From TrEMBL:
<protein>
    <submittedName>
        <fullName>SDR family NAD(P)-dependent oxidoreductase</fullName>
    </submittedName>
</protein>
<dbReference type="InterPro" id="IPR036291">
    <property type="entry name" value="NAD(P)-bd_dom_sf"/>
</dbReference>
<dbReference type="InterPro" id="IPR052228">
    <property type="entry name" value="Sec_Metab_Biosynth_Oxidored"/>
</dbReference>
<dbReference type="Pfam" id="PF00106">
    <property type="entry name" value="adh_short"/>
</dbReference>
<dbReference type="InterPro" id="IPR002347">
    <property type="entry name" value="SDR_fam"/>
</dbReference>
<keyword id="KW-0560">Oxidoreductase</keyword>
Amino acid sequence: MKRIVIQGGSDGMGRGMGAAFLERGDEVVVIGRDERKGESFLSAAREIGAGGRAHFVRADLSLVSENRRVVREIGERLPAVDVLVLCARHFLSERRETAEGFEYTFALFYLSRFLLGHDLRGLLEKGERPVIMNVAGPGSPMGEIQWDDLGFERNYDGLAAQMQGGKANDLLGVSFAERYGSGPIRYVLFNPGSVSTGFSGEYDEMTRFHVEAMKRSAKPVEAGIKPIIATIDNPPAEPLSAFVEGRRMDLVGESFEPRHARRLDEVTRELLSR
C-alpha cells in the first residue's frame, strides 16, 4: 500500500488519480480549496469501502502559510509519504495578488509546488521508492521566465503567467534533483497533453471560448492519468526525468539549464524569506 499526497486532488486529474489509487488499495490525502468537492471525494471513497484510507485537507495553496500548515498536518497524519503528486493550477485572465503579496498564478502554480516538494522531503525519504510527480508542461515550446518581473506587475497576461509557471516547474525539478539527487526521491516532470478536466479558472469571454473548444477535443481524464500512474509505479532510476504523454524526453535546452535552475532556486528562497 502506497501513501499518496495529491495537491489539487479534489477535482480533475488529481481527483481521477485519487480515485484510482483508492480502488487499488492505497492511502490517499487530497489537498484542495473546495470543501464540497473534498466531501464528495470522501463520500465516493466510503462507497467503495475505502473511507478509512481517504483524507481531505482543505487549504488555499496560493498562500505560503497554508502550504506550511498542510505540511504540518500531513506529518501528523502519515508516518511517511511514498508519492507526492503536484497538479493544482487555476487560470486568471485578470491579475490578482494573494494576501501575502505574491501574484496568484506564480504562488499557486509554482511556489506551492516548491514548498510541498521541499518541505515534505523528510517524509518522502521515509517512503518506499518515493516519487514526486509534477504534472506541468515539460516539452512545451511556449513560455519563459520573466526574471525582471516574476509577478507580472507590468503587462499581465494570463496565458503568459501560466506558461512561466510551467517553465519554473521544469527548473524546480532540475534544482531539486541537483540538490537531493543522491537520495532516494525520484523527481518526474510530466506533460499529459490536452486532457478534458475542469479547466479551473476565471476567464474572459474570448479565453473561455477557446477553453470550451479544448474541452471538446481533449482526451478524457481516464486516458490522461493512465501513463502518469504507470510512471509513478515504475519511475526511472535517474533523479530527474521528464515525459510528454508517456514518451520520455531529453533534458536539454533552456527549460532544463542548471544555471537558470540555480538562479530561480536562489530567487525563490529569497522571496520566501521575506
